[in-house]
Amino acid sequence: MQTHLIEGREAFKALRSNWNELYKKDPSAQYFLSWQWLSRLYNRNTANLVILAARPSSSAPYVALFPLRIRTRYSQTGNFYYNDIIMAGNFAADYTGFLCDPEYDSAALPALGRHLAKMDWAQILLENLYCSEERLALLTGPLQQGAVRTSNPSRTNKRDNVNNLVCPVLELPETFDAYLDTCLSSNTRQKLRRFARKVKADPSYKFTIATPETVDRDIDILMGFWHTKWAARKGDKIDTLATTSRHMLKAASAARTLFLPVLWHEDCPLGALASLMDPVREALLFALAGRDESWTTPPPGLLLHGFSINWAINNGFKTYDFLRGNEPYKYSLGAQDRRIHCQLIETKSGRNRSGKLDKRSLPGVLKTTVRDYRSNRRQQALAGLNQVLATDPDHPQALYYYGQHQMAERDYKGAVQTFSRLTQNQPQNALAWLRLGQCQYGQKDLIEAEVAVRHALLLEPANMAARSQLADTLLAMRHKQEATAAYQSVLALPPKTPAEHKLVQRATTALSRLRPVATAPILAAASPLSPNRLQQAQTGLHKPIIKTGRPPTRLN
């Protein structure tokens, strides 16, 4: 069984036909793994999203697809970065999981697990995973090996004791009358029939179903009720949650998978209930509801659920899914328990299993590291730089900032190694050559410093800092005529920054202390070295300064 990671929006789009066929074959497939749902996720943000895929051969279609997200976290106590792998779309979906052709369960799922075991992570959180115990064991078996521990975190809300790993579902009979007779208690049955008759007989009440023309209005009605009910409890998160829900509802509407009835009394909405339609699984998934909390009779919530269940039966749906949470009202409507999984697999050390970061996380780690470095949080910055370079010894930005730190600590020997590696990898990087020359100057390796700085000037002839460094180097070598010319070349450039103004002042001061050199010309950016110094410098410059494939010496 071949496994690999699929990344990027275009690669995901290319999977559409294979994805939809696999969705039809997998009896455990559910709406939040449908193409319609996940394409919404990929259209918004593909950062660190991957699909772990398996197939029998390179010419065969995929038989298993597992959408994942790789995150980067930071340990405050340990001062290190690590990666965790979570389910793609987890924050917006009630269920997560994978697609697998059931004929390939025993081969494909362990193959996915073996691939995961080889990846760079400290934690894998299989949250809200919708699959059987048997499938879960096949997937996670290979992940249990080595220095890891496994736990099953609780997802019970302590405030109201709702267990969000329990997902009540209603198996729908052939008719609504059969539902009333066989799925409800006598009390609930009588209550629902009585209020339904009252609403049907009174023309001041009506149900509407959202259409493309009314869906924006109906979503506004629903979210207005929802916001009023939950604002106090959700606190500062309420607006973010509302925005996420609104996006979800509009995306479902665009995909024609939204069912949104509204109950009205005359022109006043009393409540709204949104469900997601899965025609392949023949399931209607209750997602969100809101009602006028001041209106008690007839009860909008009960009537809207009754209306939705009746509509689902009449339109051929087989299940009415209440999604996560074992709230009592769901059982009063005839639901039965179904459970999902939450399993955490983590390394005992808390660090990535391989000792390296996932390469997808390097840009984010480096961005934070640079911010830490500039904010003088040097220990955090060094931790990040060490980890980036342990993962990618030739990372140009990490090498540059690592060398900068070494220069600041006057570790010129280490900085020469670092900037030598950078110039070997990026020979057109003028700044790297300049920094190399400055470090060699700090070590008193003046000939090598001169060659490195002249190389910088070949690449950027108008680099004032390089001209100034060349002048300092030539003066230290007692080549006063050339040094005078180099300082004059600094003055030939108009200063544009405060740092360049200081360089002009330094050059002016240096020239005033040098004897007048009547024949000193303005230095050309690439004026040649004498043959003897050139040979000496090139011999030193091309010495193997650092072993290939190894990062610079680690800083503590």
TrEMBL record:
Concerning InterPro entries, the annotation shows:
Acyl_CoA_acyltransferase (IPR016181), BioF2-like_GNAT_dom (IPR038740), TPR-like_helical_dom_sf (IPR011990), TPR_rpt (IPR019734)
Keywords noted in UniProt: TPR repeat
- Stretches assigned to the BioF2-like acetyltransferase domain: 186-330
- The lineage's top-level taxon is Bacteria
Claim: Ion transport is one of the keywords in the record: no
Q: Is the keyword Acyltransferase assigned to this protein?
A: no
The record's listing under SUPFAM superfamilies reads: Acyl-CoA N-acyltransferases (Nat), TPR-like
Please report the residue spans annotated as repeat (TPR): 396-429, 430-463
Q: What is this protein called?
A: BioF2-like acetyltransferase domain-containing protein
User: Which lineage ranks, top first, belong to the organism behind this chain?
Assistant: Bacteria, Pseudomonadati, Pseudomonadota, Alphaproteobacteria, Hyphomicrobiales
